[in-house]
Protein backbone atom coordinates (compact mmCIF):
# COMPACT_ATOMS: atom_id res chain seq x y z
CA UNK A 1 0.00 0.00 0.00
CA UNK A 2 1.26 3.47 -0.90
CA UNK A 3 0.45 5.72 2.04
CA UNK A 4 0.87 8.83 -0.11
CA UNK A 5 -2.02 7.78 -2.38
CA UNK A 6 -4.78 7.03 0.08
CA UNK A 7 -5.69 6.67 3.73
CA UNK A 8 -4.89 3.51 5.67
CA UNK A 9 -8.13 1.50 5.77
CA UNK A 10 -8.92 -0.21 9.08
CA UNK A 11 -11.33 -2.99 10.02
CA UNK A 12 -12.03 -2.98 13.77
CA UNK A 13 -12.88 -6.29 15.47
CA UNK A 14 -14.10 -6.46 19.08
CA UNK A 15 -17.10 -8.02 20.79
CA UNK A 16 -17.54 -4.95 23.02
CA UNK A 17 -19.67 -2.33 21.18
CA UNK A 18 -18.42 0.41 23.50
CA UNK A 19 -14.83 -0.44 22.58
CA UNK A 20 -15.65 -0.23 18.88
CA UNK A 21 -17.42 3.10 19.40
CA UNK A 22 -14.49 4.47 21.40
CA UNK A 23 -11.96 3.42 18.78
CA UNK A 24 -14.00 5.06 16.04
CA UNK A 25 -14.12 8.33 17.97
CA UNK A 26 -10.39 8.10 18.67
CA UNK A 27 -9.19 7.21 15.20
CA UNK A 28 -11.51 9.42 13.19
CA UNK A 29 -9.49 12.36 14.51
CA UNK A 30 -6.37 11.01 12.80
CA UNK A 31 -5.46 12.19 9.31
CA UNK A 32 -4.58 9.45 6.85
CA UNK A 33 -6.65 6.80 8.63
CA UNK A 34 -10.09 5.58 7.51
CA UNK A 35 -12.29 3.05 9.32
CA UNK A 36 -13.91 0.97 6.58
CA UNK A 37 -15.86 -1.35 8.89
CA UNK A 38 -16.18 -3.24 12.15
CA UNK A 39 -17.15 -6.72 13.34
CA UNK A 40 -17.96 -8.34 16.73
CA UNK A 41 -15.94 -11.52 16.12
CA UNK A 42 -13.45 -13.17 13.82
CA UNK A 43 -16.04 -14.98 11.71
CA UNK A 44 -17.86 -11.80 10.73
CA UNK A 45 -14.53 -10.05 10.17
CA UNK A 46 -13.53 -12.67 7.60
CA UNK A 47 -16.88 -12.28 5.85
CA UNK A 48 -16.41 -8.49 5.66
CA UNK A 49 -12.86 -8.82 4.37
CA UNK A 50 -14.34 -10.44 1.25
CA UNK A 51 -15.70 -7.07 0.14
CA UNK A 52 -13.99 -4.44 2.32
CA UNK A 53 -10.65 -3.27 0.95
CA UNK A 54 -8.97 -3.19 4.38
CA UNK A 55 -5.25 -2.67 4.85
CA UNK A 56 -5.10 -3.47 8.57
CA UNK A 57 -7.34 -5.42 10.92
CA UNK A 58 -7.23 -4.24 14.54
CA UNK A 59 -8.57 -7.09 16.65
CA UNK A 60 -9.20 -8.08 20.23
CA UNK A 61 -7.98 -11.54 21.24
CA UNK A 62 -10.69 -12.98 23.47
CA UNK A 63 -13.96 -13.01 21.47
CA UNK A 64 -16.83 -15.47 20.96
CA UNK A 65 -17.38 -17.50 17.76
CA UNK A 66 -13.81 -16.94 16.54
CA UNK A 67 -11.07 -15.35 18.63
CA UNK A 68 -8.35 -12.99 17.46
CA UNK A 69 -5.67 -15.65 17.18
CA UNK A 70 -7.80 -17.85 14.92
CA UNK A 71 -8.84 -14.79 12.94
CA UNK A 72 -5.22 -13.76 12.40
CA UNK A 73 -4.24 -17.21 11.17
CA UNK A 74 -7.15 -17.23 8.71
CA UNK A 75 -6.35 -13.72 7.47
CA UNK A 76 -2.78 -14.71 6.66
CA UNK A 77 -4.09 -17.68 4.66
CA UNK A 78 -6.99 -16.01 2.85
CA UNK A 79 -5.90 -12.35 2.74
CA UNK A 80 -2.09 -12.41 2.99
CA UNK A 81 -1.70 -8.72 2.13
CA UNK A 82 -3.85 -7.63 5.08
CA UNK A 83 -1.89 -6.77 8.23
CA UNK A 84 -3.10 -7.49 11.77
CA UNK A 85 -2.64 -5.54 14.99
CA UNK A 86 -3.81 -7.07 18.26
CA UNK A 87 -5.46 -4.54 20.58
CA UNK A 88 -6.10 -6.22 23.90
CA UNK A 89 -6.05 -5.95 27.68
CA UNK A 90 -3.79 -9.02 27.97
CA UNK A 91 -0.11 -8.35 28.62
CA UNK A 92 0.76 -12.01 29.24
CA UNK A 93 3.59 -12.95 26.83
CA UNK A 94 1.86 -16.23 25.94
CA UNK A 95 -0.94 -14.30 24.20
CA UNK A 96 1.63 -12.17 22.39
CA UNK A 97 3.57 -15.24 21.28
CA UNK A 98 0.44 -17.04 20.04
CA UNK A 99 -0.97 -14.19 17.97
CA UNK A 100 2.42 -13.14 16.57
CA UNK A 101 3.07 -16.73 15.51
CA UNK A 102 -0.36 -16.67 13.85
CA UNK A 103 0.87 -13.76 11.74
CA UNK A 104 0.08 -10.49 13.54
CA UNK A 105 2.43 -7.57 12.94
CA UNK A 106 1.58 -5.55 16.03
CA UNK A 107 0.50 -5.90 19.66
CA UNK A 108 -0.92 -2.94 21.59
CA UNK A 109 -2.59 -2.79 25.00
CA UNK A 110 -6.02 -1.20 25.29
CA UNK A 111 -4.78 1.42 27.74
CA UNK A 112 -2.41 2.85 25.13
CA UNK A 113 -2.52 6.49 24.11
CA UNK A 114 -3.95 7.69 20.81
CA UNK A 115 -0.46 8.76 19.74
CA UNK A 116 0.99 5.29 20.36
CA UNK A 117 -1.89 3.56 18.60
CA UNK A 118 -1.37 5.81 15.60
CA UNK A 119 2.34 5.01 15.67
CA UNK A 120 1.58 1.29 15.67
CA UNK A 121 -0.80 1.68 12.72
CA UNK A 122 1.66 3.71 10.69
CA UNK A 123 4.55 1.33 11.35
CA UNK A 124 2.55 -1.78 10.51
CA UNK A 125 1.22 -0.09 7.36
CA UNK A 126 4.86 0.46 6.38
CA UNK A 127 5.55 -3.30 6.69
CA UNK A 128 7.12 -3.10 10.14
CA UNK A 129 6.21 -4.70 13.46
CA UNK A 130 5.16 -2.94 16.66
CA UNK A 131 5.08 -4.00 20.30
CA UNK A 132 3.62 -1.88 23.08
CA UNK A 133 6.52 -0.52 25.14
CA UNK A 134 5.10 -2.05 28.34
CA UNK A 135 5.45 -5.59 27.00
CA UNK A 136 8.36 -5.37 24.56
CA UNK A 137 10.92 -6.84 26.98
CA UNK A 138 8.77 -9.74 28.12
CA UNK A 139 7.75 -10.44 24.53
CA UNK A 140 11.34 -10.92 23.44
CA UNK A 141 12.04 -13.16 26.42
CA UNK A 142 9.00 -15.27 25.61
CA UNK A 143 9.68 -15.56 21.88
CA UNK A 144 13.40 -16.12 22.13
CA UNK A 145 14.71 -19.52 23.01
CA UNK A 146 18.29 -18.61 22.18
CA UNK A 147 21.15 -17.95 24.60
CA UNK A 148 22.14 -14.32 25.00
CA UNK A 149 25.78 -13.30 25.19
CA UNK A 150 27.47 -9.97 25.67
CA UNK A 151 29.27 -8.70 22.60
CA UNK A 152 30.96 -5.31 22.87
CA UNK A 153 28.29 -4.06 25.25
CA UNK A 154 25.28 -5.31 23.29
CA UNK A 155 23.05 -8.27 24.06
CA UNK A 156 23.15 -10.53 21.05
CA UNK A 157 19.73 -11.85 20.04
CA UNK A 158 19.14 -14.03 17.00
CA UNK A 159 15.55 -12.79 16.76
CA UNK A 160 16.59 -9.32 15.65
CA UNK A 161 15.68 -9.24 11.98
CA UNK A 162 14.97 -6.18 9.90
CA UNK A 163 12.44 -5.80 7.13
CA UNK A 164 13.74 -4.97 3.66
CA UNK A 165 12.72 -1.35 4.21
CA UNK A 166 14.43 -1.15 7.60
CA UNK A 167 17.57 -2.72 6.12
CA UNK A 168 17.63 -0.10 3.37
CA UNK A 169 17.26 2.72 5.89
CA UNK A 170 20.05 1.33 8.06
CA UNK A 171 22.34 0.89 5.06
CA UNK A 172 21.75 4.41 3.75
CA UNK A 173 22.20 5.83 7.24
CA UNK A 174 25.53 4.00 7.56
CA UNK A 175 26.61 5.69 4.32
CA UNK A 176 26.08 9.08 5.92
CA UNK A 177 22.81 10.08 4.25
CA UNK A 178 20.43 12.39 6.11
CA UNK A 179 16.85 11.32 6.82
CA UNK A 180 15.66 13.78 4.17
CA UNK A 181 17.97 12.18 1.58
CA UNK A 182 16.91 8.67 2.62
CA UNK A 183 13.28 9.78 2.24
CA UNK A 184 13.94 10.89 -1.33
CA UNK A 185 15.97 7.83 -2.26
CA UNK A 186 13.33 5.39 -0.99
CA UNK A 187 10.38 7.52 -2.18
CA UNK A 188 8.89 7.49 1.31
CA UNK A 189 7.50 10.29 3.43
CA UNK A 190 9.84 11.62 6.13
CA UNK A 191 7.48 10.63 9.03
CA UNK A 192 7.52 7.05 7.70
CA UNK A 193 11.34 7.05 7.69
CA UNK A 194 11.39 8.42 11.23
CA UNK A 195 8.96 5.80 12.50
CA UNK A 196 10.89 3.00 10.78
CA UNK A 197 14.10 4.25 12.37
CA UNK A 198 12.44 4.32 15.78
CA UNK A 199 11.35 0.73 15.21
CA UNK A 200 14.93 -0.25 14.31
CA UNK A 201 16.15 1.32 17.57
CA UNK A 202 13.55 -0.70 19.46
CA UNK A 203 14.47 -3.96 17.73
CA UNK A 204 18.22 -3.50 18.26
CA UNK A 205 17.91 -2.01 21.75
CA UNK A 206 19.98 1.01 20.73
CA UNK A 207 19.35 4.63 21.69
CA UNK A 208 21.00 6.72 18.99
CA UNK A 209 22.53 6.55 15.53
CA UNK A 210 26.06 5.92 16.81
CA UNK A 211 24.95 2.89 18.85
CA UNK A 212 22.81 1.64 15.98
CA UNK A 213 25.63 1.80 13.44
CA UNK A 214 27.97 0.07 15.87
CA UNK A 215 25.35 -2.64 16.41
CA UNK A 216 24.86 -2.99 12.66
CA UNK A 217 28.58 -3.50 12.07
CA UNK A 218 28.90 -6.02 14.91
CA UNK A 219 25.95 -8.08 13.68
CA UNK A 220 26.78 -7.80 9.96
CA UNK A 221 23.62 -5.83 9.17
CA UNK A 222 25.57 -3.23 7.21
CA UNK A 223 27.24 -3.95 3.89
CA UNK A 224 30.66 -2.43 3.32
CA UNK A 225 30.71 0.03 0.42
CA UNK A 226 33.61 0.74 -1.94
CA UNK A 227 35.81 3.63 -0.86
Explain what this protein looks like in three dimensions.
About 45% of the residues lie in helices and about 15% in strands. With about 230 residues, it is α/β, with parallel strands linked by helices. Helix 3 (about 70-80) runs parallel beside helix 4. The chain starts with 7 loop residues before the first strand and ends in a 9-residue tail after the last helix. This is Response regulator transcription factor.
Counting helices, strands and paired strands, the structural category is alpha/beta
Q: What is the beta-strand fraction?
A: 5-15%
Number of helices: 10
- CATH superfamily caption of the largest domain: Response regulator
Terminal-residue CA separation: 36 Å
Poorly predicted spans: 145-159
Q: Return the CATH class of the largest domain.
A: Alpha Beta
Topology-level CATH name of the largest domain: Rossmann fold
User: Whole-number average pLDDT?
Assistant: 83
Biggest sheet overview: 6 strands, parallel
As for the number of domains, it is: 2
Helix content: 40-55%
What radius of gyration results from the CA coordinates?
18 Å
CATH architecture of the largest domain: 3-Layer(aba) Sandwich
State the total count of DSSP E strands: 8
The secondary-structure element order is: EHEHEHEHEHEHEEHHHH
Form type: globular
Strand arrangement within the widest β-sheet reads: 2-1-3-4-5-6
Short description:
InterPro entries: CheY-like_superfamily, NreC/VraR/RcsB-like_REC, Sig_transdc_resp-reg_C-effctor, Sig_transdc_resp-reg_receiver, Tscrpt_reg_LuxR_C, WalR-like. With 227 residues, the protein is α/β, with parallel strands linked by helices.
Amino acid sequence: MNQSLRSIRLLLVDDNPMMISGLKMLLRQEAGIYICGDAPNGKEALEKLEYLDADIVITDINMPVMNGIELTAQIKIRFPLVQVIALTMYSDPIYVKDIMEAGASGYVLKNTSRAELREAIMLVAADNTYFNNEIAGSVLDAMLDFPKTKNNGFEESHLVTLTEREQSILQLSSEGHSLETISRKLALQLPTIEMCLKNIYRKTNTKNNKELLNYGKIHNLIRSTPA
